[in-house]
Design goal:
Distance between the termini: 56 Å
Number of strands: 10
Radius of gyration: 20 Å
Largest sheet: 6 strands, mixed
Bound molecules: adenosine-5'-triphosphate
Strand content: 15-25%
Helix content: 40-55%
Order of helices and strands: EEEHEEHEHHHEHEHEEHH
Number of helices: 9
Strand order of the largest sheet: 6-7-8-3-9-10
Length: 258
Protein backbone atom coordinates (compact mmCIF):
# COMPACT_ATOMS: atom_id res chain seq x y z
CA UNK A 1 0.00 0.00 0.00
CA UNK A 2 2.88 2.30 -0.95
CA UNK A 3 0.53 4.84 -2.60
CA UNK A 4 -1.72 5.25 0.41
CA UNK A 5 -1.82 8.88 1.61
CA UNK A 6 -0.90 9.22 5.28
CA UNK A 7 -1.09 13.02 5.23
CA UNK A 8 -3.69 14.90 3.18
CA UNK A 9 -4.65 18.54 3.36
CA UNK A 10 -7.38 20.49 1.57
CA UNK A 11 -7.24 24.27 1.70
CA UNK A 12 -5.47 24.22 5.06
CA UNK A 13 -5.33 27.76 6.41
CA UNK A 14 -4.05 29.54 9.53
CA UNK A 15 -4.82 33.14 10.39
CA UNK A 16 -3.31 35.14 13.23
CA UNK A 17 -5.71 38.09 13.48
CA UNK A 18 -5.79 39.59 9.99
CA UNK A 19 -2.46 38.02 9.00
CA UNK A 20 -2.74 34.77 7.00
CA UNK A 21 0.35 32.66 7.75
CA UNK A 22 -0.80 29.56 5.79
CA UNK A 23 -2.98 30.26 2.75
CA UNK A 24 -5.12 27.26 1.84
CA UNK A 25 -2.50 24.63 1.10
CA UNK A 26 -3.49 21.26 -0.43
CA UNK A 27 -1.14 18.30 -0.81
CA UNK A 28 -0.69 14.69 0.21
CA UNK A 29 2.18 12.49 1.39
CA UNK A 30 2.41 8.73 0.79
CA UNK A 31 3.23 6.08 3.35
CA UNK A 32 6.99 5.57 3.74
CA UNK A 33 7.86 8.73 1.82
CA UNK A 34 10.56 11.20 2.90
CA UNK A 35 8.83 14.51 2.25
CA UNK A 36 10.83 17.75 2.41
CA UNK A 37 8.88 20.84 3.42
CA UNK A 38 11.00 23.80 2.31
CA UNK A 39 10.61 27.55 2.47
CA UNK A 40 12.40 30.72 3.56
CA UNK A 41 12.21 32.02 7.14
CA UNK A 42 8.66 33.00 7.96
CA UNK A 43 7.14 31.19 4.94
CA UNK A 44 4.71 29.35 7.23
CA UNK A 45 6.34 25.91 7.55
CA UNK A 46 6.27 25.61 11.34
CA UNK A 47 2.71 26.95 11.47
CA UNK A 48 1.56 24.36 8.90
CA UNK A 49 3.46 21.56 10.64
CA UNK A 50 1.96 22.43 14.02
CA UNK A 51 -1.54 22.12 12.55
CA UNK A 52 -0.64 18.70 11.09
CA UNK A 53 0.62 17.57 14.51
CA UNK A 54 -2.62 18.54 16.27
CA UNK A 55 -0.82 21.32 18.17
CA UNK A 56 -2.61 24.25 16.52
CA UNK A 57 -6.20 24.43 15.25
CA UNK A 58 -6.70 25.25 11.55
CA UNK A 59 -8.63 28.47 10.83
CA UNK A 60 -10.09 26.89 7.67
CA UNK A 61 -9.66 23.86 5.43
CA UNK A 62 -9.00 20.32 6.59
CA UNK A 63 -6.14 17.90 7.18
CA UNK A 64 -6.02 14.18 7.83
CA UNK A 65 -2.94 12.66 9.44
CA UNK A 66 -2.53 8.92 10.02
CA UNK A 67 -6.24 8.47 9.38
CA UNK A 68 -7.42 11.22 11.78
CA UNK A 69 -8.91 14.63 11.16
CA UNK A 70 -6.49 17.01 12.92
CA UNK A 71 -9.19 19.47 13.99
CA UNK A 72 -11.64 16.86 15.26
CA UNK A 73 -9.23 14.42 16.85
CA UNK A 74 -5.94 16.18 17.72
CA UNK A 75 -5.23 13.92 20.72
CA UNK A 76 -5.38 10.77 18.58
CA UNK A 77 -3.11 12.43 15.98
CA UNK A 78 -0.55 13.11 18.72
CA UNK A 79 -0.58 9.43 19.72
CA UNK A 80 0.04 8.26 16.15
CA UNK A 81 2.91 10.59 15.27
CA UNK A 82 6.34 11.59 16.50
CA UNK A 83 7.44 15.24 16.58
CA UNK A 84 10.90 16.76 16.90
CA UNK A 85 10.75 20.53 17.33
CA UNK A 86 13.50 23.01 16.44
CA UNK A 87 14.49 23.31 20.07
CA UNK A 88 14.21 19.54 20.64
CA UNK A 89 12.20 18.30 23.54
CA UNK A 90 14.85 16.63 25.64
CA UNK A 91 15.15 17.30 29.36
CA UNK A 92 18.69 18.62 29.79
CA UNK A 93 18.75 17.95 33.53
CA UNK A 94 17.86 14.27 33.10
CA UNK A 95 20.21 11.54 31.90
CA UNK A 96 20.00 9.90 28.49
CA UNK A 97 18.36 6.80 29.99
CA UNK A 98 15.91 8.88 32.05
CA UNK A 99 14.80 10.81 28.95
CA UNK A 100 14.06 7.58 27.07
CA UNK A 101 12.14 6.17 30.04
CA UNK A 102 10.17 9.37 30.48
CA UNK A 103 9.12 9.55 26.82
CA UNK A 104 8.26 5.84 26.71
CA UNK A 105 5.89 6.55 29.61
CA UNK A 106 4.41 9.63 27.95
CA UNK A 107 3.75 7.57 24.81
CA UNK A 108 1.96 4.99 26.95
CA UNK A 109 4.43 2.14 26.30
CA UNK A 110 4.60 -0.79 28.73
CA UNK A 111 7.51 -0.97 31.18
CA UNK A 112 9.07 -4.05 29.55
CA UNK A 113 8.82 -2.51 26.07
CA UNK A 114 10.47 0.70 27.35
CA UNK A 115 13.32 -1.30 28.87
CA UNK A 116 13.94 -3.32 25.70
CA UNK A 117 13.69 -0.31 23.39
CA UNK A 118 16.00 1.76 25.63
CA UNK A 119 18.74 -0.86 25.36
CA UNK A 120 18.28 -1.07 21.58
CA UNK A 121 18.44 2.71 21.11
CA UNK A 122 21.51 3.07 23.37
CA UNK A 123 23.25 0.40 21.30
CA UNK A 124 22.23 1.92 17.96
CA UNK A 125 23.47 5.35 19.04
CA UNK A 126 26.59 3.85 20.68
CA UNK A 127 25.62 5.71 23.81
CA UNK A 128 25.75 2.73 26.20
CA UNK A 129 28.65 4.22 28.15
CA UNK A 130 26.99 7.64 28.30
CA UNK A 131 23.54 6.37 29.26
CA UNK A 132 23.77 7.81 32.77
CA UNK A 133 25.21 11.17 31.74
CA UNK A 134 23.07 14.29 31.80
CA UNK A 135 21.78 15.27 28.37
CA UNK A 136 23.14 18.78 29.00
CA UNK A 137 26.67 17.38 28.82
CA UNK A 138 26.25 15.85 25.32
CA UNK A 139 27.52 17.54 22.14
CA UNK A 140 24.78 19.04 19.92
CA UNK A 141 25.06 16.31 17.26
CA UNK A 142 24.38 13.59 19.86
CA UNK A 143 21.46 15.52 21.28
CA UNK A 144 19.94 15.71 17.80
CA UNK A 145 20.30 11.96 17.28
CA UNK A 146 18.85 11.27 20.70
CA UNK A 147 15.95 13.68 20.09
CA UNK A 148 15.19 11.84 16.85
CA UNK A 149 15.32 8.44 18.60
CA UNK A 150 12.93 9.82 21.22
CA UNK A 151 10.56 11.11 18.51
CA UNK A 152 10.29 7.61 16.98
CA UNK A 153 10.66 5.65 20.25
CA UNK A 154 7.03 4.40 20.05
CA UNK A 155 7.33 3.50 16.32
CA UNK A 156 4.82 6.13 15.12
CA UNK A 157 3.34 6.01 11.60
CA UNK A 158 4.76 9.44 10.80
CA UNK A 159 7.54 11.55 12.25
CA UNK A 160 7.57 15.35 11.86
CA UNK A 161 11.01 16.96 12.03
CA UNK A 162 11.27 20.74 12.25
CA UNK A 163 14.74 21.75 11.05
CA UNK A 164 16.37 18.81 12.79
CA UNK A 165 19.92 19.46 11.59
CA UNK A 166 20.30 23.17 12.37
CA UNK A 167 23.70 24.20 13.67
CA UNK A 168 25.70 21.02 13.08
CA UNK A 169 28.55 20.28 10.67
CA UNK A 170 27.98 18.54 7.29
CA UNK A 171 29.35 15.15 8.44
CA UNK A 172 27.02 15.08 11.46
CA UNK A 173 24.13 16.11 9.22
CA UNK A 174 24.97 13.27 6.82
CA UNK A 175 24.97 10.76 9.70
CA UNK A 176 21.66 12.16 10.91
CA UNK A 177 20.20 11.52 7.45
CA UNK A 178 21.30 7.88 7.66
CA UNK A 179 19.01 7.60 10.69
CA UNK A 180 16.18 9.19 8.70
CA UNK A 181 16.66 6.65 5.89
CA UNK A 182 16.66 3.77 8.36
CA UNK A 183 13.35 4.98 9.85
CA UNK A 184 11.82 5.37 6.37
CA UNK A 185 12.93 1.84 5.48
CA UNK A 186 11.01 0.58 8.51
CA UNK A 187 7.91 2.21 6.98
CA UNK A 188 7.86 5.42 9.05
CA UNK A 189 6.82 8.38 6.89
CA UNK A 190 9.18 11.32 7.38
CA UNK A 191 7.98 14.92 7.04
CA UNK A 192 10.97 17.23 7.40
CA UNK A 193 11.62 20.97 7.13
CA UNK A 194 15.11 22.17 6.37
CA UNK A 195 16.99 25.27 5.30
CA UNK A 196 19.80 23.22 3.77
CA UNK A 197 19.15 22.79 0.08
CA UNK A 198 21.60 19.88 -0.24
CA UNK A 199 19.30 18.01 2.15
CA UNK A 200 16.34 18.61 -0.17
CA UNK A 201 18.10 16.23 -2.58
CA UNK A 202 17.84 13.44 0.00
CA UNK A 203 14.02 13.64 -0.03
CA UNK A 204 11.69 11.59 -2.25
CA UNK A 205 9.61 14.72 -2.93
CA UNK A 206 9.79 18.30 -1.78
CA UNK A 207 7.37 21.19 -1.59
CA UNK A 208 8.54 24.80 -1.59
CA UNK A 209 6.51 27.28 0.39
CA UNK A 210 6.64 31.02 -0.31
CA UNK A 211 4.64 33.51 1.69
CA UNK A 212 2.11 30.99 3.04
CA UNK A 213 1.56 29.15 -0.26
CA UNK A 214 3.02 26.01 -1.80
CA UNK A 215 4.61 27.23 -5.02
CA UNK A 216 6.23 23.98 -6.22
CA UNK A 217 5.92 20.31 -5.33
CA UNK A 218 7.67 17.38 -7.01
CA UNK A 219 10.74 15.14 -6.87
CA UNK A 220 14.01 17.11 -6.63
CA UNK A 221 15.03 15.85 -10.09
CA UNK A 222 11.80 16.98 -11.78
CA UNK A 223 11.97 20.37 -10.06
CA UNK A 224 15.55 20.87 -11.24
CA UNK A 225 14.48 19.95 -14.79
CA UNK A 226 11.39 22.18 -14.72
CA UNK A 227 13.43 25.18 -13.57
CA UNK A 228 16.48 24.32 -15.73
CA UNK A 229 18.50 24.48 -12.52
CA UNK A 230 21.74 22.77 -11.47
CA UNK A 231 20.64 22.20 -7.89
CA UNK A 232 17.75 22.71 -5.49
CA UNK A 233 19.37 25.90 -4.24
CA UNK A 234 18.91 27.44 -7.68
CA UNK A 235 15.27 26.23 -7.87
CA UNK A 236 14.64 27.83 -4.49
CA UNK A 237 16.36 31.11 -5.39
CA UNK A 238 14.35 31.40 -8.61
CA UNK A 239 11.03 30.86 -6.84
CA UNK A 240 11.82 33.40 -4.15
CA UNK A 241 13.10 35.88 -6.74
CA UNK A 242 9.92 35.46 -8.85
CA UNK A 243 7.93 36.15 -5.70
CA UNK A 244 9.89 39.35 -5.04
CA UNK A 245 9.52 40.51 -8.65
CA UNK A 246 5.74 39.83 -8.53
CA UNK A 247 5.45 41.69 -5.27
CA UNK A 248 7.52 44.56 -6.67
CA UNK A 249 5.24 44.70 -9.74
CA UNK A 250 2.17 44.54 -7.49
CA UNK A 251 3.46 47.36 -5.33
CA UNK A 252 4.16 49.45 -8.44
CA UNK A 253 0.62 48.78 -9.75
CA UNK A 254 -0.86 49.73 -6.37
CA UNK A 255 1.10 52.95 -6.41
CA UNK A 256 -0.21 53.77 -9.91
CA UNK A 257 -3.80 53.12 -8.80
CA UNK A 258 -3.55 55.67 -6.04
P1 LIG B 1 11.18 29.57 10.23
O1 LIG B 1 11.98 28.83 9.25
O2 LIG B 1 11.79 30.88 10.62
O3 LIG B 1 10.72 28.76 11.40
P2 LIG B 1 8.55 29.24 9.10
O4 LIG B 1 8.42 29.06 7.63
O5 LIG B 1 8.44 28.04 9.94
O6 LIG B 1 9.87 30.04 9.42
P3 LIG B 1 6.42 30.26 10.71
O7 LIG B 1 7.15 30.14 11.99
O8 LIG B 1 5.36 29.28 10.40
O9 LIG B 1 7.44 30.29 9.49
O10 LIG B 1 5.81 31.73 10.62
C1 LIG B 1 5.00 32.18 9.52
C2 LIG B 1 4.53 33.58 9.77
O11 LIG B 1 3.52 33.56 10.79
C3 LIG B 1 5.62 34.53 10.26
O12 LIG B 1 5.41 35.79 9.67
C4 LIG B 1 5.39 34.59 11.77
O13 LIG B 1 5.80 35.84 12.29
C5 LIG B 1 3.88 34.43 11.86
N1 LIG B 1 3.45 33.78 13.11
C6 LIG B 1 3.81 32.56 13.55
N2 LIG B 1 3.22 32.26 14.73
C7 LIG B 1 2.47 33.37 15.05
C8 LIG B 1 1.62 33.70 16.16
N3 LIG B 1 1.41 32.85 17.15
N4 LIG B 1 1.02 34.92 16.12
C9 LIG B 1 1.22 35.77 15.11
N5 LIG B 1 1.99 35.52 14.04
C10 LIG B 1 2.62 34.34 14.02
Amino acid sequence: MKDEAVIRTEGLTKRFGTFVAVKGISFSVRRGEIFGFLGANGAGKTTAMRMLCGLSRPSAGRAWVAGCDVARNPEEVKRRIGYMSQRFSLYEDLTVRENLKLYGGIYGMRREAIREKTERVLKELQLERDADKLVASLPLGWKQKLAFSVAIFHEPQIVFLDEPTGGVDPLTRRRFWEMIYAAAERGITVFVTTHYMDEAEYCDRVSIMVDGEIRALDTPRRLREAFGAEGMDEVFQRLVRTERTDRGAGAAADATDE
